[in-house]
Design goal:
The chain is α/β, with parallel strands linked by helices and about 375 residues long. It has ten helices and 17 strands. Strands 4-5-9-10-11-13-14-17 form an eight-stranded mixed sheet. It has a five-stranded mixed sheet with strand order 2-1-3-8-6. Helix 8 runs parallel beside helix 10.
Length: about 375
């Protein structure tokens, strides 16, 4: 997919140096065409800081007169999608965001620094999870969001109560509804969260996964090993489905940099797609990971393996967003399953799923013998 100019305009690589609109710009990072700021967001220091970042970068800012985001819908769904994907909204997280939910099999609890993502992945699971135009909403009430976490310490059932993962402590997932690194140059919220967890004297872990690579602002943070960054990777044959993200090479370099900075790291190999010659494609990916970590002594590496699936609703949305996509989503080539909520999803047939699992987990053991597989789904 070719992005329009508004979604790939460059921004500065180091927000700390973004003091003027003429600051150096880095083409790897997202530059929204429109920044909306609600009045309530400016009651919070983080909201004011995000506004200052946007203004320093010379981004077009609209200070709204109410706390509702309006005027985002369009009769043309394709145009509405483009406009929403080019918009950052600085808002206050609603009270529901402070009532944390478990997020198996990843972590004990999910908390949100933002909602929405600037990438253009043609398989995006958010298409079936979030309602309305896909605007990226960054939350200004960061103090309340982070201050709410201690109430959940030791209360989880995914890692806290799991014999194989109990050493991770109480885990908090920050990338369920966003890619926090993809917007970090505009928010600074991820750095604040990493620093917060580093200073938290408890058995806790912050977790996030990303398809971006601008990790430079994170390398020197006092993380104290309490943040695990997982890079979402896929076989090179699937790269055309991941528009607006960092290249695989850049993500591999970022993986190595974070591991050398002492962070626990991980792979989120997702979504695993039955591309032509998929055994060689995913085996090759794992060899590239091994090379990226070849100069790291005893890397703390986990692996999460997630196969491609879709729902009727997400398929409809995605085909509206990406009408020219050749991503295989034929129901007659899949198995129909019911989720625990009673909704329908389509996954790979049992025999193919079993073969993929055996082949790819064996490749992990062969290429990355020091890695720990957390789950296959």
């Amino acid at each position: 997919m070719v992005l329009d100019d508004a979604t790939r305009d460059p921004v500065t690589a180091d927000p700390a140096k973004a003091e003027t609109a003429d600051a150096p710009r880095d083409p790897r990072l997202w530059r929204p065409r429109r920044v909306l700021v609600t009045p309530a967001a400016l009651d919070h220091a983080q909201g004011r800081a995000m506004l200052a970042r946007a203004e320093a970068l010379g981004l077009p800012v609209e200070r709204l007169t109410s706390n509702r985001l309006t005027g985002l819908r369009d009769d043309d769904p394709r145009r509405a999608y483009r406009e929403a994907k080019a918009t950052l909204a600085i808002v206050v997280a609603p009270p529901s965001k402070l009532r944390l939910q478990p997020i198996p099999p990843s972590a004990d609890w999910r908390f949100d620094l933002a909602e929405g993502c600037p990438a253009h992945c043609q398989y995006c699971y958010l298409a079936g999870s979030l309602s309305g135009p896909p605007v990226t909403r960054a939350y200004a009430n960061l103090d309340a969001i982070l201050g709410n976490l201690p109430a959940y310490l030791g209360e989880g059932s995914v890692t806290s109560a799991h014999a194989g993962r109990v050493e991770e402590g109480t885990t908090f997932e920050a990338s369920c509804y966003t890619d926090p690194l993809g917007i970090e140059h505009l928010t600074g919220s991820l750095s604040a969260a990493i620093t917060h967890f580093g200073a938290w004297d408890a058995a806790v872990q912050l977790r996030f996964t990303t398809k971006f690579a601008a990790v430079e602002p994170l390398l020197a943070l006092p993380h104290r090993g309490r943040t695990r960054v997982r890079f979402s990777l896929n076989a090179r044959a699937a790269a055309r489905y991941e528009g607006g993200t960092a290249s695989l090479d850049a993500r591999l370099q970022a993986l190595g940099a974070m591991a050398r900075a002492g962070y626990p790291v991980g792979l989120t190999i997702a979504p695993i797609i039955a591309v032509p010659d998929w055994p060689d494609a995913y085996g090759g990916l794992l060899r590239e990971v091994a090379e990226a970590l070849s100069d790291v002594s005893n890397p703390d590496l986990t692996v999460e393996l997630i196969t491609h699936r879709f729902t009727p609703g997400s398929k409809d949305v995605l085909q509206g967003w990406y009408p020219g996509s050749d991503l295989p989503m034929r129901e007659d080539e899949r198995s129909r399953k019911l989720t625990k909520f009673g909704s329908v999803k389509y996954v790979y047939p049992r025999d193919l799923m079993r073969t993929m699992r055996e082949t790819i987990t064996a490749a992990v053991a062969r290429e990355l013998p020091f890695a720990r597989i957390l789950y296959w789904t």
